[in-house]
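Much of our argument rests on the idea that a fold can be written as discrete symbols. In the encoding step, the backbone of a single protein was reduced to a row of integers, each denoting a local shape. We regard such an encoding as a compact summary of how the chain folds. The record that follows shows the chain in one-letter code together with its fold in token form:
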Amino acid sequence: MRKQLIIGITAAIIGAGALSAGLASAKDGWDRCGERHEGGHHGKYEQMDGKHSAMRMTMMTEKLNLTDEQQTQMQELFKSKQDQMQDQRGTMREMHNALRDLDVNASDYDQQVADLVTKAQEKTAQMIQMRAQQKKAMFAILTPEQQQTFMEMRAEKPRH
């Protein structure tokens, strides 16, 4: 049973690592085959962060009727979130690399995997807390009417 749990958790870490590695390679302008792209969306991932943020801000301003002060506060909040998310992606990339580099034949391989699982659980918990704090901070900026409109907008948004 313990071995199956470790295998399941390891698979989850590998999946999360593969996702973050894919995002990282797209951000760095590399495609899945290892070829470098300067054009197209692969090479412009970093630029899209700024465009996405601007589009999100424009949409929120229009739909929620944000004041100038609210817009400024939201922009500061989104900027701090962006920096934190970059740090989280870096940490996930490091964990993926650590798992990839483990020696399966090492006598303490299972312990090393268990340590990575624990670290992944801690980082996941931190990410959930970070997102909850951001939502709380955003709602502190919005009026109750804007909060209600925002929740309605979120309900209508398609999920990936």
User: Anything to note?
Assistant: The chain has a mean pLDDT of 78.
